[in-house]
Design goal:
about 525 residues; alpha/beta; D-Maltodextrin-Binding Protein, domain 2; 3 domains; three-stranded antiparallel sheet; 16 strands; globular
């Protein structure tokens, strides 16, 4: 039975609604009177930003008329102080956050404002253009609220092996086009090391947090069969949970992970109805270990490649130009091998649940939300606006080349800014004109929205702090994973037999520590997400 509002209440509500509409209309014109200072929290070390801000202020003094007070910190300091700023309700209008920082926790605590009304809104054409519904879907909750602005250029940063072109040609090999070719390249290098022809420590450099990453993994192929690895459910690549969905993408049919018996994968679609994660750790990673350096656990970077101590390393295509320029300084040429078959064959890629890993958020305590969103809208209103903040002053810091390329210039006061913290967007991508043509084409494939198929669980994030039992289990399992990850994912056990024994030890410990609590939480949360959509 519907209730009627009392007359006085009705007129109060009507008046409030009218006033709200008037305020909204005024704000949405972006005709902001009086200079406003926005307090922005980012991290990193930009260079020569003052000149770009001066140009921005000059261009917008009669429209936005805002100033930016940007507080820069190290990544660690930024991550540590954001929760304190939010809990203390300190002055803040725009902050960088990410799931690898505090986004999951702070958004669930209500620290950020709902900014959904600014998107798909004709009064904010920049936001409407740069963040269409299909792109903003990953941050749109079931009730339509949006608490974060996604920043990314492409759904994938293609994984590659960077190797020495001069050595590959020395061995009379055609360009690497398969894992078998890559192994043959390593064998040639290894023979040269043993004979003394090369003064290297190993053919293949493995280190840092990536280890062998996706090499010889089926993670991308699984997505095409509605099987998704759930980030935040494990410590590092290869140790997350796989979640399988029904063919129509509406129901969770199973969740399994490293160490599980094949029976845990029985409901998964073939050929993934057995635990291929176990096979990779025991048999595939140990195969590549034969070519990797012995001290890989202690390696935090792969600068050994630049010192000619290793003949190849794993990475992303976005780093190709930096690698090429570094090696050119010592007279060496490089090339790359796309080791994931789906990407190598330029097939469509089913996306991960999250295609952006970096975000801007507006703190709930901000008194300048309209003006903050007007600023973000300005950045994305035109390529000229966007490029000012991403690349600097055209003609001084960079030059436009064609529709989607740029030439990087090197003035003494070169502008440098971490674009992934404010400007990255699929609508505004330029490729450095210095890339070889074949690499440019790979970038265009990577950046083309038509290269991707959206995930049926787009926007899902696992909340590992949902309740006390889950928090306890997750902390215990993560601690065990941090111990065993180098052993299993870096192949420190060396042989299949020893690796299998270590895997069994690991699995017994995580099962006792609460692995099944995490499993059930993942199933419940993914199903709830599917139901909400």
């Amino acid at each position: 039975m519907k209730k009627r509002l009392k007359k006085g209440v009705f007129w109060f509500c009507l008046t409030a609604a009218v006033l709200t509409a008037i305020v909204f209309m005024v704000c949405c014109t972006n005709d902001i009177s009086g200079q406003t200072t926005l307090k922005v929290y980012l991290f990193g070390e930009p260079q020569n930003m003052d000149k770009v801000l001066a140009k921005f202020y000059e261009q917008t003094k009669d429209t936005l008329n805002i100033k930016l007070d940007i507080i820069w910190s190290s990544g660690a300091d930024h991550r540590e102080k954001m929760p304190l700023i939010m809990s203390n309700q300190e002055n803040a209008d725009l902050v960088f956050d990410a799931y690898w920082m505090n986004l999951n926790r702070l958004s669930s605590q209500g620290a950020y404002a709902d900014i959904s009304s600014y998107f798909n809104n004709d009064n904010y054409p920049g936001l409407k253009k740069a963040f269409p519904p299909e792109y903003i879907a990953q941050v749109t909750n079931g009730d339509g609220s949006i608490y974060a602005i996604p920043l990314t250029q492409a759904a994938e940063d293609i994984q590659v092996i960077i190797l020495r072109k001069d050595l590959r040609e020395k061995y009379g090999m055609a360009p690497i086009d398969s894992n078998e070719d890559l192994a043959a390249y390593f064998q040639h290098v290894q023979a040269d090391i043993k004979s003394g022809a090369l003064f290297m420590i190993a053919p293949f450099g493995v280190g840092g947090s990536r280890a062998f990453y996706y090499l010889d993994d089926d993670i991308i192929e699984k997505r095409a069969r509605n099987i998704f690895n759930i980030d935040g459910s494990g410590n590092g690549v290869g140790m997350m949970f796989d979640v399988a969905l029904s063919e129509d993408g509406k129901k969770v049919i199973g969740a399994a992970t490293l160490g599980d018996p094949d029976s845990a994968y029985a409901m998964f679609p073939p050929p993934y109805n057995r635990n291929t994660r176990n096979d990779r750790v025991v048999y595939k990673i140990t195969k590549w270990v034969a070519y990797a350096q012995r001290d890989r656990q202690s390696i935090t970077d792969l600068n050994q490649f630049y010192a000619e101590k290793i003949a190849a390393k794993e990475g992303n295509i976005s780093n190709y130009l930096a690698d090429a320029r570094t090696m050119e300084k010592i007279g060496k040429a490089i090339e790359m091998y796309m080791y994931i078959p789906t990407m190598r064959n330029r097939e469509k890629i089913v996306t991960t649940p999250l295609t952006a890993w970096n975000f801007l958020c507006v703190p709930r305590q901000s008194k300048k939300i309209d003006k903050t969103m007007a600023f973000i809208d300005w950045i994305f209103r035109s390529r000229e606006n966007h490029d000012l903040f991403e690349f600097g002053i055209e003609g001084e810091d960079w030059l436009a080349v064609g529709d989607d390329e740029f030439q990087d210039l090197s003035p003494a006061n070169k502008y440098v800014f971490p674009g992934y913290e404010m400007t990255w967007n699929p609508n505004y991508i330029r490729i450095d004109t210095n890339y070889p043509e074949d690499i440019k084409e790979i970038f265009r494939y990577q950046n083309d929205p038509a290269s991707y198929i959206p995930s049926p669980i787009a926007g899902f994030t696992f909340n590992n702090e949902a309740d006390a039992a889950l928090r306890t289990a997750y902390a215990a399992v993560a601690g065990i994973q941090s111990t065993y990850r180098p052993i299993l994912m870096m192949g420190l056990a060396e042989t299949p037999e020893k690796t299998k024994a270590a895997l069994e030890e690991y699995y017994t410990q995580v099962k006792n520590a609460g692995l099944d609590v995490i499993r059930q939480a993942i199933i419940d949360q993914v199903q709830k997400h599917l139901d909400s959509r």
